[in-house]
């Protein structure tokens, strides 16, 4: 069965209608974590109409459609997409660290939640600030896609195959410091824009290679563009990379309670630990900080790395911790402990550069 969704596009106060046809449900639907939903709850949600606020890039729309399909399939909700262009999408000539950070990708969506135009916002969790404004919260974190970074090039098989002085595109300080640690000879140039724009710049010959999140390429069926995937040892991901977060107003209690049924608990606990590291160290686009957690049996293994924001020749500071983490409090405590280890290794000196 093919489901249809309507997207409302909002730019500078102007509203237009875009028709999007969904090609059925997502490739895989998250398994139900509840044994059953009561008849009264199912009846209540079946008649609920939900509007999802989303950026209008192809990847953002895929993510919003994925959540729409989950809500339709699981709860019988009627779902409309509200497409929006954020400041982060509009400002392409400067790095995010110089114009306000990744929060620029979510502020307009939060405004739509606040004034009632939308009930839910879908975000790439890596773009969500560590602390949300008062009145907003993350109701659910969904199952994570591949969290690693991808090496994309039309002429070279991997990072090691690049010639001396090759030009690599990325605007992520986290990626810059780790690329420099692997290949100090490389010329790292800024790369902004949505995923399709970045690929087009590579194809136009502006770069020898670019580094992108593997998750976005795979979600859009562009996995063949990946020449190599960085190991997390060589290129530690940022907090939340590959995961989707669902943001609602705090007072939307009924919707929040419904969305909790979509939580993927292993992913949620892992990203809680990652985000706790970033929160403790003031993580933002100005901080070249990586944090990534993986499950090893019943234990969570959390790794973090911090680079100097200006002197990329200085060594990366690293910390890691392995322990059982069965609750959100456990996960957050792990993150704070790892942040303490980084502080002990000299993180304060690195971060002081950003403060001045």
By secondary-structure content and strand pairing, the structural class works out as alpha/beta
Give the topology string: H per helix, E per strand.
Answer: EEHEHEHHEEEEHEHEHEEHHEEEHH
- Outline, from the CA principal axes? globular
Mean pLDDT: 85
User: What's the arrangement of strands in the largest beta sheet?
Assistant: 2-1-4-3-5-12-6
Number of strands: 15
Low-confidence stretches: 1-47, 90-101
Residue share in β-strands: 15-25%
- Describe the sheet with the most strands: 7 strands, mixed
Radius of gyration: 20 Å
Helical segment count:
11
How would you summarize what this structure contains?
The protein has 356 residues and is of the alpha/beta class. The protein is built from eleven helices and 15 strands.
Produce the secondary structure layout:
Blueprint: E1 4-11, E2 14-21, H1 39-46, E3 49-55, H2 58-75, E4 78-84, H3 87-90, H4 107-114, E5 120-124, E6 136-141, E7 149-152, E8 167-169, H5 173-182, E9 187-189, H6 195-203, E10 209-213, H7 214-219, E11 228-229, E12 244-249, H8 253-259, H9 265-280, E13 289-296, E14 299-306, E15 317-324, H10 328-344, H11 347-355
Parallel strand pairs: 1-4, 3-4, 3-5, 8-9, 8-10
Antiparallel strand pairs: 1-2, 5-12, 6-12, 7-10, 7-11, 13-14, 14-15
């Amino acid at each position: 069965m093919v489901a249809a969704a309507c997207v409302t596009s909002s730019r500078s106060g102007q509203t237009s209608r875009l028709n999007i046809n969904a090609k059925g449900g997502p490739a895989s639907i998250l398994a139900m974590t509840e044994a059953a939903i009561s008849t009264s709850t199912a009846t209540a949600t079946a008649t609920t109409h939900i509007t999802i606020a989303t950026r209008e890039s192809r990847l953002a729309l895929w993510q919003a459609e994925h959540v729409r399909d989950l809500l339709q399939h699981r709860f019988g909700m009627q779902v409309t997409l509200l497409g929006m262009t954020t400041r982060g999408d509009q400002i392409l000539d400067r790095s995010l660290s110089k114009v306000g950070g990744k929060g620029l990708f979510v502020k307009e969506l939060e405004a739509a939640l606040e004034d009632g135009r939308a009930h839910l916002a879908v975000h790439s969790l890596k773009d969500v600030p560590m602390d949300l404004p008062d009145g907003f919260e993350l109701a659910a974190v969904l199952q994570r896609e591949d969290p690693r970074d991808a090496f994309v090039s039309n002429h070279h098989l991997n990072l090691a195959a690049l010639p001396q002085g090759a030009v690599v595109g990325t605007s992520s300080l986290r990626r810059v410091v780790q690329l420099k640690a692997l290949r100090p000879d490389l010329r790292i140039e800024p790369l902004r824009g949505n995923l399709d724009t970045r690929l087009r710049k590579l194809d136009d010959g502006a770069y020898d290679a670019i580094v992108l999140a593997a998750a976005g390429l795979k979600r859009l069926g562009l996995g063949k563009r990946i020449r190599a995937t960085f190991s997390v040892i060589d290129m530690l991901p940022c907090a939340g990379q590959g995961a989707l977060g669902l943001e609602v107003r705090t007072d939307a209690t009924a919707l929040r309670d419904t969305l909790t049924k979509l939580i993927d608990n292993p992913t949620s606990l892992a990203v809680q630990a990652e985000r706790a590291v970033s929160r403790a160290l003031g993580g933002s686009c100005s901080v070249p900080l990586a944090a990534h957690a993986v499950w090893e049996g019943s234990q969570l293994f959390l790794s973090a790395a911090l680079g100097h924001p200006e002197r990329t020749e200085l060594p990366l500071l690293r910390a890691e911790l392995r322990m059982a983490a069965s609750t959100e409090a456990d996960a957050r405590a792990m993150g704070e402990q790892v942040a303490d280890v980084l502080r002990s290794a000299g993180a304060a000196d690195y971060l002081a550069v950003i403060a001045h």
